[in-house]
Amino acid sequence: MRVTPFQSPVCFSDLKFHHPETRKNEHRRNWWHFDAVSDDSNSLLVILMTNDYPYRQDHQKPLTQKSPAAHPAVSLTFIHENKKIARLVNLFPTDSISISNETVRIGDFALDSISTPYGTGLRLNGTIKDEDIGWFNISLEWLAIEADLSPAKIVPFGADVWNIAMPRADVTGEISFLGRNGEKHFRFHGTGYHDRRSSDRESIIIRNIFRSHCHFSDKTVVAGIFGNDEGDSVSEALIIENNELHQPLIIEHTGQLRLTSGKMRQHFWSFESQDQMLLKITQKEMFDTGGTFVRGIADFELTEKSDLVNKGSGLFEMVRRDWSDPGWAEWLADIGLVRR
Fold first, then answer.
1. Which bin fits 108, alpha (ψ -120 to 50), beta or left (φ > 0)?
2. pTM (global) more than 0.85
3. Rounded distance, CA 92 to CA 225, Å?
4. What does DSSP assign to residue 7?
5. Among residues of the chain, what percentage have pLDDT more than 70?
6. Which of 47, 39, 41, 320 is nearest to 204 (CA)?
7. Torsion angles phi and psi, residue 256, rounded to 5
């Protein structure tokens, strides 16, 4: 694949909520992404908070049209024992979000920086509901194992930002469900990941995105490919070990950036660095779709110059930010939206 020198969106910060997240700019779309897999591999969850949820029908418009009003949102995908327990998005009024250096709050759902005797990290607390299904009360903590990789580096205010704030975390807490048939509690303990994403709503450069991460026993790998409509792309593959960042220079990458409308075939991605690192990622199964994205589980194989091979399973996400393709939106946009 042809590689272009347009700026990589990857950056790092500490766990405070920095510029451009706190910038009062209606043209900016910000995401706070969390995912985790339980220690027994029986549970998987993805939580997304955003000041402007883009995966909705009124966003499926050509970019020449005026962008619709922003809608803050909180989404939850929760899978337990191979059953999809929840797959919900709650949309909130435009003025229902507030951001400070310590807290992001959307409606009654809060993301807080925490510092405790047993560690520092982030806490998610609030409710996601569907009148037909029930209420999901969430109380979860992401305690940092790998974080603050380069806290002195200022988060760039570019068209696109991928801020890898916490590659690995110890996740504990509870998801409780209250429905017509009673109440059920899911205790959660596992390994998680957190990043932050920011983009300019009006000046989109990167349209096709592949993001992934995998937790090996002694290290974490985070990899991504970012492409424009002309076939140019830039890629990153990061290795974090003992909370130290290794950012090898990728000299070649391969893999699909565009999904074919109406078809799902097995995808494969690879990254090769100047210092002989080789990362191979193979799609296993999809577990979430909506609007212009798919999320799934993949097999990861990392070979470093010592010829040591690490194998494991991780998560990936593909995003196609092309609102003018109604066919794409039609076959993926089956996620339930609830306006609060």
1. alpha
2. yes
3. 31
4. P
5. 77
6. 320
7. -80, 130
